[in-house]
Design a protein that fits this description.
This protein is of the alpha/beta class. It is globular, with a radius of gyration of 20 Å. The strands form three sheets. The protein has a seven-stranded parallel β-sheet with strand order 3-2-1-4-5-6-10, sandwiched between helices. A two-stranded parallel sheet has the order 7-9.
Length: 345
Amino acid sequence: MLPSSTNIRSILITGAAGGVGHRLCHVLRERGLQVRGLVRPEDDTRRLELPAEDLHVGYVQDPETLSRALDGIDAVVHCAGLLPDARNAPPEAFQEINVEGTRNVMRQAIRHRTKWVIAMSTISVVDHVTRTITPTEFFDYVPDTTDPYLASKIEAEKLLLAMRPDFSGQLAILRLAYVYGPGNYAVWRRPLELLEQGKLKLIGGGAAPFPLIYADDIGRFILTLFEGNSPGGYEGVHVLANPQPTTLRSVFDFVADFLEQSRPGSVPLWATRLAASMVGVLPRAWRRGRLEMLTHARVVQFSRGYDLSGVLDRKLMERVGATDYREGLRHMLSDYVTLRTVPRS
């Protein structure tokens, strides 16, 4: 149960049926919060441990739907969004859902005098790959990105910060490392498929740092915010990653062993750069399978990895009780194996 000192009793989770959302519902309900979920009509809600009366059906972009869902709510955790795996979605879809949906959440939170707004973002909004970001560069957003997902997350962050003066409650933006856990497959499904096909290769042996955050640990961090335990961060923005060192090699070797597959091979950096340059001149429609993932940006990303050393609050994450990555991966992969063997309707 939450300590009696906290004034948060009820919470709305947007995107409650999603990979992060359904785990937050579980963690927060377990700690005694009254949890309400906003889900889309097309969502599969079988994972949700919420009674029907606590499910609100509609879209985060719709003010009336969100207003009804926020009635009587102390805090909103905004998880709803179009994710990187929506490769065929047009750029305007990312704008509508990730930016305008976020604007709607903040507007309705202001109107309902909600005590907290907590919004999900990504560590990729700033360049942790080629630079060591410190608090001084914390808001040096990646300029002129052509990735519609990343562009929408950058715009959403800026929007939240711009609207904060009109909000009487507290705002927290959580920049998440690579999220994993049961049902969290937005960035995992394709690599897992390639691993099972024996086609996954790690650039330069996979030595690049690969920061992770277990979905349940996000829920525990949110509880820390509510409990007022000096959560740190920079102007209400927090980097969430397990301080436990992980590399592409350590993660995917563990995954391969668990799935009883061959461990991924390695490809030299120079060869990957050359291949990415060749693929870059092909029409987008021709980039299928592994070619779809072979871009210059990904080569840089997965050969250098992410350096969060300048902004990660290790003491805080240790206090939250970050899950050992192997334990977390076991839960995710057990779920993945189960889903793979159940016929899809």
